[in-house]
Design a protein that fits this description.
Length: about 500
């Protein structure tokens, strides 16, 4: 059986290895990639092969070198293909797809991590110290990150591991600074950490993230980035303004019922339609399910009350009070869910981890500031829904609150409010994930615009007729049973 050659073969001082490489070159089994490095891959381009095998190649060519400075914090080359190694001397070596900056400096110590390939990686404390050294741009890139980027890495440690982790980092950096003759950089680092932890003035901080933390309003920068993406897309999109078709109290009350019914159904609070009707309109208390009954009744109370739905929030504090009051109205029968209070423990849905408790307020503030700058009601409504859904500020009830905040924006403007019927649940959740996981806002905007159009075409002046029309549009079916059909597709004009 013919043996499969490895993708990378390196030459050495071993005569038998040199003879083997010569033989493989002669019979066309391998080709030269860079000096002393060969490959059996004749399909991929050189840059792809080098990047894929960089640790083995660098370890062979520069044995004992230490991945350092910005490369040690990023654990990779830059987007333009530059990588920095502390070595015996200074030199820039260029390979296809990779530019290696060799920097004369101290060898790896016991604190650093060494790979089997022969390359070591600066410890985290050492990497922070290295990134605070003076740096000049060469070939369009610096060996160090910008000061704000270093601060962002420190903030990330604080977010994920807590303040104690920053103090531990500072203690370890103190020891290594003495060993590496980097006391000047340690002084900068300790000042930076103290400012982030609010134990000294934050005048020298440069990152918006760390400035916010030092003021006691830390936020989740990844979520704020998502909000910025949605804000930009909503701001530049021409969105139709659909005027509400519910002109009478009866129509408004019937719409509110189905809003509460579908919104709770999405979250797993499931009742038969007639039972839900009795809970809402006859104050029926189902056996052993008083909490579920209160959830749907509380949701209905909010969405059916025009005075409640048109409440405005001229500043963040009033916005937060409104969020909490609406949460209390829905979840008041569930003391284990801390009704009316932001969460104290992290929460998640599947593999999605929502904003951690200490970042909820700061992240909401950032989102509320963006929301205030949007041009129209539908843009604000979509943004509000995603803002609350993505942060998940409460222990439970976040989806219902998100949809209430969405429809409140539309109610204030006299525009059509939005139902998310059962059959459309997966479309809605997948659209949320497209933005949350893939930074694509278009599916969410298009999903909610279709739901608004659907909601505007249903007539709500008669219970039996509304139920019949919703049934014909597949609204009550499960997502795997059928698709949502618009009334304009089903009914003759």
């Amino acid at each position: 059986m013919k043996k499969t050659l490895p993708e990378i073969i390196v030459s050495g001082s071993n005569n038998s290895q040199s003879k083997r490489i010569s033989h493989l070159l002669k019979n066309g089994s391998i080709r030269k990639l860079v000096q002393k490095v060969y490959t059996s891959n004749f399909s991929d381009d050189d840059a792809t092969i080098i990047i894929r095998n960089k640790w083995e190649i660098l370890g062979h060519l520069f044995s004992g070198a230490t991945l350092s400075h910005r490369s040690a914090l990023e654990w990779s080359e830059t987007s333009s293909g530059h990588i920095f190694l502390t070595y015996k001397y200074n030199r820039i070596v260029t390979f296809p797809g990779l530019t290696v900056h060799l920097l004369s400096g101290p060898e790896a110590t016991d604190h650093d991590q060494c790979l089997p390939t022969g390359i070591c990686i600066s410890s985290q404390p050492r990497a922070f110290l290295e990134n605070l050294q003076p740096s000049k741009e060469r070939q369009g890139v610096k060996k160090t990150l910008e000061r704000s980027e270093v601060e962002n890495y420190l903030d990330q440690i604080c977010r994920v591991k807590g303040e104690d982790a920053l103090n531990e980092l500072r203690d370890e950096a103190s020891i290594q600074a003495a060993e590496l003759d980097m006391e000047e950089q340690f002084a900068i680092l300790t000042s930076m950490i103290s400012a982030i932890l609010s134990t000294r003035p934050a005048d020298d901080l440069q990152s918006p993230v760390t400035k916010a933390r030092s003021k006691g309003q830390p936020y989740d920068p990844l979520r704020v980035e998502l909000f910025g993406i949605l804000f930009t897309e909503l701001g530049r999109s021409i969105l139709p303004e659909v005027i509400s078709t519910q002109s009478t109290d009866q129509e408004s009350q019937l719409f509110a019922f189905f809003d509460a019914y579908f919104s709770n159904y999405i979250e797993g609070t499931i009742f038969e339609l007639d039972e839900a009707r009795e809970i809402v309109f006859s104050n029926h208390e189902p056996y052993q399910r008083p909490g579920d009954a209160h959830d749907i009744r509380g949701t209905y109370w909010i969405v059916s009350n025009p005075d409640e739905m048109i409440l405005k929030s001229p500043d963040y504090d009033s916005y937060e009070r409104l969020l909490k009051a609406r949460h209390l109205a829905i979840m008041g029968m569930r003391p284990d869910k801390s009704p009316g209070q932001f969460k104290m423990k992290p929460n998640q849905a599947g593999s999605t981890h929502f904003v951690t408790p200490e970042l909820v307020k700061g992240t909401l503030i950032k989102g509320w500031e963006m929301h205030s700058g949007l041009p129209n009601a539908i843009a604000k409504a979509i943004f509000q829904m995603f803002l609350v859904s993505e942060i998940h500020p409460f222990d439970d009830g976040n989806g219902r609150i998100a949809r209430i905040m969405m429809n409140a924006e539309l109610e204030k403007a006299g525009h059509q409010k939005i139902l998310i019927p059962t059959v459309y649940r997966e479309n809605y959740l997948l659209a949320l994930r497209a933005l949350s996981r893939n930074k694509n806002p278009r599916p969410l905007i298009e999903c909610l615009m279709k739901a608004q159009l659907f909601s505007s075409q249903i007539k709500y002046n008669n219970w039996d007729q509304t139920v019949t029309d919703l049934t014909k549009c597949n609204a009550f079916k499960e997502p795997d049973e059928d698709r949502l059909r618009l009334p304009s597709e089903v009914f003759d004009n």
